[in-house]
Design goal:
With 479 residues, the protein is mostly helical. Helices cover 63% and strands 2% of the residues. The protein is built from 22 helices and four strands. Helix 8 packs across helix 10 and helix 15 (299-310) runs parallel beside helix 16 (325-337). The protein is globular and about 75 Å long. The protein starts with a helix and ends with a helix.
């Protein structure tokens, strides 16, 4: 059983990597267009990735069909290897392997935590443009999901593809646009591409940002990633129009794309969704509290940071590490809460918060009327009890991982604020933290062991813990 599962995992991983290698074509073309001397690094990365992919695909052929349990190992392993091979351009440029792996994992998991530091050239990182584009492209591919993309364009996986789709988009309330998972993946990616193109056009022609910058920023916005070509993030541009455009698209990216689909189809009742309403309430409350803690005259910065952190995008227009401690506590809470389920954002997700609030209300009523039958409803429909148990288990595991990782980082020499915020920012796929990993700083100074822990936090957080943790279960491998 174990041998068959490993063989199937390697075979499917090879099939995905074969098509993933094509992603290097875009930065290769950009490097050639700008006349960069080391354009060949993308060609080397493409050929190396393709070679390994073909070895895995044809060397581990199997007739075994993808089952539910196989989905866990395949998805977890694909995400690990995609980040590993995404490291190649950084390594070929001379960046250390661990730092390159950190940057690549941060990109594909749409975390946005970076190890890049100065010196800056006219505000931009001193890197070739092709590399800056590659950073944002990794986030864009990871936002809607690399596996969902391959399922959308290559529906040959059959029924087993649904197991991969569900593992890449684990949700307490699974919902598909269409019964066929491949159709759902195609529709989600169509909306995603449409929003990305719309933002590029608006930033380029309305906000008057350069096309290259508009493209990189849009890739990182819709994926709620946070990478930018500039050292000072969005604050570098000092462009209010661009900031408002980015705020709108960060807000849209933090919503469930299922809601987007229904609204675009004319079903405006979808915005009455319980999760969406709480999403708006939390953002509005956070903006009010940040303005109250800071300055009523600078509402745009507070609004931008509230939306950026809530959606786990991580763009920055102000050094919120210097803000009042009450404001930093609000931002830290938003890092843990995260965006909506079915979005490209990370964190615990608003859907889990709203479900637990409803569950608490039911339990309080049952304390008064112990014999009453009070169903738990979400969007006016009863929820199975198993969903609540799953959410409680997830929340417990999330807090446990955050606690253990924070303690270990503290033993490695990080102060409490830095350790907790670094874990919250990577596990929630947010990016910038507080204190020594604040928005004006990077993660480059961390010891190697700390970087490894945070890389694991990014991986765990993007796949929502259970997909990865199942691989460490003895019963999982026996099943």
């Amino acid at each position: 059983m174990v041998r068959q599962r490993v063989r199937l995992t390697l075979h499917i991983t090879g099939s995905f990597l074969k098509y993933f290698a094509l992603a290097y074509i875009l930065p290769l073309c950009v490097a050639i267009y700008y006349g960069e001397a080391n354009w060949y690094i993308y060609l080397y990365a493409l050929l190396l990735t393709l070679g390994v992919a073909l070895i895995l695909e044809f060397g581990f052929k199997t007739a075994k069909e993808i089952e539910r349990t196989d989905g866990f190992t395949i998805v977890a392993f694909i995400w690990l290897l995609v980040a590993l091979f995404g490291t190649l351009p950084y390594v070929f440029l001379g960046l250390g392997f661990l730092d390159g792996f950190f940057e690549a994992m941060s990109g594909f998991t749409t975390t946005g935590a970076t190890i890049l530091t100065g010196p800056a050239i006219e505000g931009f990182f001193s890197l070739p443009r092709s590399v800056l584009l590659w950073r944002s492209l990794t986030q864009w591919l990871g936002g809607m999901g690399v596996i969902a993309l391959f399922i959308a364009i290559l529906p040959r996986l059959g029924v087993g593809g649904s197991q991969l789709f569900d593992r890449e988009f684990p949700s307490p309330l699974p919902e598909r646009i269409r019964p066929r998972f491949s159709t759902t993946a195609r529709l989600l990616w169509t909306i995603y591409i449409g929003f990305t193109a719309a933002q590029i056009v608006l930033l380029c022609f309305w906000a008057r940002l350069p096309l290259f910058d508009s493209t990189c920023i849009s890739f990182s916005t819709l994926s709620t990633g946070g990478f930018t070509p500039t050292v000072e993030s969005i604050g570098f541009y000092g462009n209010p129009v661009a900031e408002y455009i980015i705020m709108v698209f960060m807000f849209l990216a933090g919503m469930s794309f299922i809601v987007h689909y229904h609204v675009l189809r004319g079903n405006w009742r979808a915005i009455k969704d319980d999760e969406f309403r709480l999403y708006i309430i939390i953002i509005a409350a956070a903006i009010f509290l940040l303005i109250l803690a800071q300055d009523f005259g600078s509402y745009r910065k507070e609004m931008f940071q509230a939306i950026s952190i809530m959606t786990t995008t991580g763009f920055v227009t102000a050094d919120f590490g210097l803000w009042h401690s009450s404001a930093k506590m609000v931002l830290l809470a938003l890092m843990f809460i995260g965006a909506c389920g079915g979005s490209t954002g990370g964190g615990i997700k608003v859907v889990r918060i709203v479900t637990l609030i409803k569950h608490t209300r039911v339990m309080m009523r049952k304390a008064i009327f112990p014999n009453a039958v009070i169903p738990l409803k979400y969007n006016r429909k009863p929820l199975p009890e198993g969903i609540v148990r799953d959410i409680i288990s997830f929340l417990f595991l999330y807090v446990l991982v955050a606690l253990v990782a924070s303690v270990v980082l503290s033993f490695l020499g990080l102060n409490v604020e830095t350790a907790i915020s670094a874990v919250a920012a990577t596990l929630g796929n947010v990016g910038p933290g507080l204190a020594d990993v604040g928005p004006s700083l990077s993660y480059a100074w961390l010891p190697g062991a700390a970087k490894v822990i945070l890389i694991m936090c990014m991986w765990f957080g993007r796949l929502e813990l259970f997909t990865v943790f199942m691989m460490f279960s003895r019963h999982f491998w026996k099943g």
